[in-house]
Write a structure and sequence with these properties.
Chain lengths: 510, 350
């Protein structure tokens, strides 16, 4: 985890005086503030969308709940370039789908989607699933007795929601929101396409136009300092509250709320989100794909590329989850300075611009580990550095809901610490483990900058193919790879979420 | 839970990490296409190429090179800038023999750090001075022309000015698209500064900005925006249009060339030999091949770029090379590029 940070510091120290000039220029400051505001907006909006979705799919009698569950988690699978392009193709001021539809009504051009509206929309739509998955996990782990007690004390549903359920969910909402915030900070593709002046654009100029790794490193460090500020704020906000129930209650299914007349608005909400975040991009992809097919384009090697992608993602995910578990366990059961620091540091890889992490590993790999350089092992290591916080966050929030007494009971009955872990703790947080795995798998399959530089030569993934398609204005190729990516992601999510059902049925004991 | 559990967790974690690492390494090392470590001087003729040009564009000609010469190649396709930076980070442990860049700036960056070897004079002679580095460390393989693309439904050819200065006129307000964060645009502005001076360049840029252009993130979105009618004209590179037309023959966009100013300058895609190469001889043969008639013809007819050597003719709706005024600049002069960046930053274009 420390590797990328060390790399940045070393490179930054080699920077020249013009780097300082950039750092302190008015424009940099202006853009930095813009980015911070964008991050706030996207994080808030994502949290709202995600929490409502999670509540609807876990705790209500929404028709078609299981289907909505899968769909609402899907937008993560949409590569941000494709998603943004789809939004532009649909909502752009002129010549877009919407404008063409409205043209007969005399509407010549729509209000511009570029800038703030487009950036916020695109980022929210494709990152809210981070919060959705973490919140959903926590919702399923709440002991219904807590809410029943609240109801018995006279609170109605809304009040219970506000005063009991939501506070209970705050660690998971926070965990997911951290991911959204850091993703927004470090993403370049979406703000670029949406013509939003983000901080990453300044970093990009240094890397790709000035070829100046040193100035870029200084700017990246500025970004990281913001990351640390956010991490610190989150740390302070973490209450010492207990999130598990103190009695030895039974773990039951969450109590289902009856929607009544809220059914149609809820369905409308879910449909709106899913249409914008999935159907529209997928529809655009299908359109491009068929356009290409009709023009006779061929799509060689996609089978092998898909296998490559899935294979490396699967290995990395397994490793990530097994490494994330101990970290989560330590920070929850044995909170200490050290464990907290490790957990916080894990976010650094995720919040850094991808190219910076990639170059850090290139520098380290080529010069210190030549045997591993440009091998799959190195690539997997890169994925671990980049994405381990995704898993840690979810597992942590799952663990927080587990009453440590249960583990103590197991110990008092004679099970050793290892056995306790295996037979008691881990099965009880299975939901968190699986949700974390789903999150990681999809994110890995989409990753680009590290894959381009660190993978074995001639090793191609779906993500690299999508990028090639966009570079050469060959939308049909991008579309073909994107469609497969989405399909594979759907399959992964479905498999993983179906484990929850089996899990739930097993989980009743005195 | 006490200390014993804590140790159990930590111990378990370390054990798991070690086991995972070993298993991971064993499981994955068997599938590496390139199993041998980086430096293998006993390998038979194998050339490692880092290419910022995409596989779909140059894959076929590289295969042809393998067939015609018997030299094996291993190509890492990626972003031009990313690969250049990677070569810099890799330092003397870089596996790259050849660096094939999409523009000259990247080649200049490597050259400035002393990472490129001099190319033999006989090879350099094939190409005009304007398209190779002044110290012989890189050479252009193909030319990529700047062009003004326009929407054929919204703009009549006769309305288009013959000079880039025409576009600062008020009638073009709200109709222009450009992509300031793009490397080719940067080269274009550099050429403008060289040809007409810094003050005129600034004047032009400010003039366009007064016309409220839409700033796209790259050439592809710009051309796509032109097609949708979001803008009427855009400053881009020539070959994107061909790619769009290949998938949609009805695409309502066409090229327009300005007459002899920076607006229709030629950028290059070129190669350099990386100093860590173990096969300088093979690398030189690769460059020779890319400048041969066969390869140049391929580029002209398949990627719609300008051949820079040999007798190949340009095809498609493009102005022949002689008709285009080529500015007298070293395309890779990075100090100049930095100056351009400063200018663009200064007027908030970037």
């Amino acid at each position: 985890m420390l590797l990328p940070l060390a790399y940045l510091v070393i490179r930054a120290s080699e920077a020249g005086s013009d780097a300082i000039a950039i750092l302190t220029s008015y424009r940099t400051l202006e853009v930095f503030v813009n980015t911070v505001l964008l991050t706030f907006a996207v994080t808030a909006l994502s949290a709202i969308v995600a929490v409502i979705s999670a509540l609807l799919t876990v705790k209500t009698d929404l028709p078609g709940r299981r289907l909505w569950s899968v769909f609402l988690a899907m937008p993560l699978a949409i590569p941000s370039f494709v998603g943004s392009f789809a939004i532009i193709a649909t909502f752009a001021p002129r010549g877009s789908l919407l404008q063409n539809l409205l043209a007969p009504l005399g509407i010549e051009s729509l209000p511009s989607i570029y800038g703030w509206p487009g950036a916020v929309l695109a980022l929210t739509l494709f990152t809210y699933p981070y919060v959705y998955l973490t919140t959903r996990t926590a919702l399923q782990g709440i002991d219904p007795a807590i809410e029943e007690v609240s109801r018995s004390l006279g609170h109605n549903i809304r009040s219970t929601l506000r005063r009991v359920t939501l506070p209970h969910l705050s660690p998971s909402i926070a965990a997911g929101s951290l991911l959204v915030a850091f993703y927004t900070l470090s993403d370049f593709g979406t703000p670029a396409l949406m013509q939003f002046d983000s901080f990453t654009r300044i970093i990009f100029v240094e890397y790709e136009l000035a070829f100046d790794r040193h100035s870029a490193a200084i700017l990246s460090l500025l970004l990281i300092s913001l990351v640390f500020v956010i991490l610190y704020l989150e740390h302070r906000a973490r209450s010492k509250a207990y999130y598990y129930s103190t009695g030895l209650g039974t773990k039951r299914q969450p109590s289902i709320m009856n929607l009544g007349r809220w059914k149609w608005p809820s369905l409308a909400f879910c449909s709106a989100v899913v249409s914008l975040a999935i159907f529209m991009p997928v529809g655009t992809m299908l359109y491009w794909f068929f356009q290409g097919v009709l023009a006779g384009t061929s799509f060689p090697d996609l089978g092998m590329i898909t296998l490559n992608t899935v294979y490396v993602a699967a290995i990395a995910t397994l490793l990530i989850v097994s490494l994330a578990l101990p970290v989560a366990l330590l920070t929850v059961r044995f909170p200490s300075r050290a464990s907290n620091v490790i957990e916080k540091l894990s976010y650094v890889g995720f919040a850094m611009p991808g190219i910076a992490v990639a170059l850090a590993l290139v520098s380290f790999g080529a010069n210190h580990l030549p045997l591993f350089y440009q091998s799959i092992a190195m690539l997997v290591f890169a994925y671990i550095v980049l994405f381990i916080p995704l898993s840690i966050g979810i597992i942590r929030s799952s663990l927080l809901q587990l009453n440590p007494r249960i583990e103590e009971v197991a110990r008092s009955l004679g099970l050793g610490p290892g056995k306790t872990m295996l037979t008691v703790t881990i099965p009880m947080i299975k939901t968190g483990l699986f949700a974390g795995a789903a999150l990681v798998v999809i994110t890995i399959m989409k990753e680009l900058p590290a894959t381009l530089l660190l993978s074995p030569i001639e090793f191609r993934t779906l993500a690299t193919q999508i990028w090639v398609g966009t570079e050469t204005a060959s939308f049909s190729h991008s579309a073909a790879s994107s469609l497969i990516l989405v399909a594979v992601s759907v399959i992964s999510i479905t498999i993983i979420l179906s484990q929850e059902k089996i899990n739930r049925e097993e989980r009743t004991y005195a | 839970m006490g200390n014993s559990t804590k140790f159990a967790i930590i111990g378990g974690a370390v054990a798991a990490a070690i086991i995972a690492g070993v298993v991971g390494f064993v499981a994955t090392s068997g599938t590496d296409p390139a199993e041998e470590p980086v430096t293998t001087s006993t390998e038979p003729e194998m050339l490692t190429i880092y290419s910022g040009r995409s596989e779909s564009l140059i894959g076929p000609i590289i295969e042809q090179f393998e067939q015609d010469t018997g030299i094996e190649t291993e190509v890492r396709y990626g972003k031009t800038a990313g690969l250049a930076l990677a070569i810099l980070e890799e330092g003397q442990n870089s596996p790259a023999d050849i660096y094939f860049a999409q523009d000259a700036g990247a080649l200049g960056a490597l050259s400035k750090e002393g990472r490129l070897l001099t190319i033999p004079a006989p090879i350099l002679q094939e190409v005009d001075d304007a398209f190779k580095s002044s110290d012989g460390e890189w050479v252009g393989i193909t030319g990529r022309a700047r062009v003004v693309d326009y929407n054929t439904d919204l703009v009549d050819k006769s309305e288009l000015p013959s000079s880039i200065w025409g576009f600062v006129e008020p009638e073009w307000k709200g109709k222009i698209g450009w992509a300031p964060p793009n490397g080719s645009f940067q080269s274009f502005v550099t050429a403008l500064r060289v040809m007409e001076g810094d003050d005129r360049a600034r004047e032009w840029l400010l003039g366009i900005m007064a016309n409220e252009p839409i700033a796209y993130s790259g050439n592809t979105p710009t051309v796509e925006g032109i097609a949708r009618g979001e803008v009427h004209v855009g400053f881009v590179n020539n070959y994107y249009l061909q790619r769009f037309l290949a998938e949609d023959p009805e695409f309502p966009v066409a090229h327009h060339y300005t007459n002899g100013d920076a607006g229709s300058m030629i950028n290059i895609a070129g190669v350099g030999i990386v100093d860590t190469t173990q096969d300088q001889d093979l690398a030189e043969r690769f460059i020779e091949y890319m400048l041969s008639d066969k390869a140049q013809n391929f580029f002209a007819t398949t990627t719609y770029e300008y051949p820079l050597a040999g007798n190949a003719e340009v095809v498609g709706p493009q102005s022949p090379l002689e008709n285009i005024n080529v500015p007298d600049i070293d395309l890779s002069d990075l100090d100049d590029l930095e100056g351009t960046l400063d200018l663009l930053r200064d007027i908030n274009a970037i």
